[in-house]
Amino acid sequence: MKQRSTLALENITVEFPTRNGLFCALDNISLNIEKGEFVALIGHSGCGKSTLLNVVAGLVKPTRGVVFLDDQVVDAPGPDRAVVFQDHSLLPWLTVEENVRLAVDKTTPGKSKAERRDWVMHNLELVQMTHAATKRPGELSGGMKQRVGIARAIAMNPRVLLMDEPFGALDALTRASLQDAVMAIQAQLNNTVLMITHDVDEAILLADRVVMMTNGPAARIGEDLAVDIARPRARLAAMDTAEYAASRHAVVHFLHERYRNPVDQAA
Ligand SMILES: Nc1ncnc2c1ncn2[C@@H]1O[C@H](COP(=O)(O)OP(=O)(O)OP(=O)(O)O)[C@@H](O)[C@H]1O
Question: Which positions make up the signal peptide (predicted)?
């Protein structure tokens, strides 16, 4: 029998009850992600990306279908799947260090206090935030808060990192610097990642595969594109490759020709 992928979504359908009856958001979606793979999920607003990520996070129960993580059924939130949201969701009354330590305390109960502190600082170092360890979120820029959110997620040592538009609220330069940080961390830790983005360049630069969703209702996976650009990927050099241009063309064609934004179509 064929072995299941590390993360296996099998025939996921999500229907939401609404005042006008059932609304089918996702229709029979199957997706396999291997250990260490970085998958970007892209599609127009409202197609169902967050719903799919929330199913994997255990925050939305599928109407039909099953999610397996290392062959175990996933049907509730758990520390094996850390989520980074667009809004960093740090606790404002705790320092940077305390915010990360909260997650570490929950997920590594066996470690001594000193070990946990070292682990917190190690993860802050990965996102280059040790200098701000004693600051509170209110004293940080948006990009810095998002770095701490990423440190908190990876400090949980999750089997899968789920990112829902993690850089969506940042300006272009800060976004680029965070993308570089995530690529560096990925190269070091070999995380398994599912990331939602609206940004074609971000998807291609970061991901091993770009999974494109059709417009809802009843969204499906329209195309699953492997991005064959060698790693490590230096931004400018990667963008100059023929593979980058071909991948970009495929995604733009999908989003703006085959499955145009339903808002534009209605105009
Ligand atoms: N709890 C709910 N009840 C009813 N409908 C819902 C619910 N949650 C989501 N939907 C609908 O399901 C569809 C998919 O929503 P979802 O938030 O997953 O889309 P998305 O692709 O993440 O959008 P965006 O890119 O704008 O964040 C939308 O039409 C949305 O209105």
Answer: none
Q: How far is the CA of 63 from the centre of ligand 1 (A)?
A: 15
Average pLDDT, the chain: 93
Please check whether residue 39 lies inside any domain of the structure. yes
pLDDT tens for 118-132 read 999 999 999 999 999
Single-letter amino acid code for the residue at 78 = G
With a Cβ cut-off of 6 Å, ligand 1 is lined by 16, 18, 23, 25, 43, 45-51, 216
192 C-alpha to center of ligand 1: Å?
24
Query: Ligand 1, atom 14: nearest CA belongs to which residue?
Result: 48
- The length of the chain is 267
Domain contains 46:
yes
- At 261 the pLDDT is 81
Give the Å distances, CA to CA, from 137 to 47, 124, 146, 184, 229. 32, 14, 10, 24, 36
Instruction: For 40, list phi and psi in degrees, rounded to 5.
Output: -100, 135
Taking only the tens place, the pLDDT of each residue in 33-68 is 999 999 999 999 999 999 999 999 999 999 999 999
The secondary structure of residue 218, as a DSSP letter, is S
Q: Determine which residue's CA is closest to atom 29 belonging to ligand 1.
A: 46
* Same domain? 241 vs 176: yes
Domain of residue 115 covers 90-157
Q: What is the pTM of this model?
A: 0.94
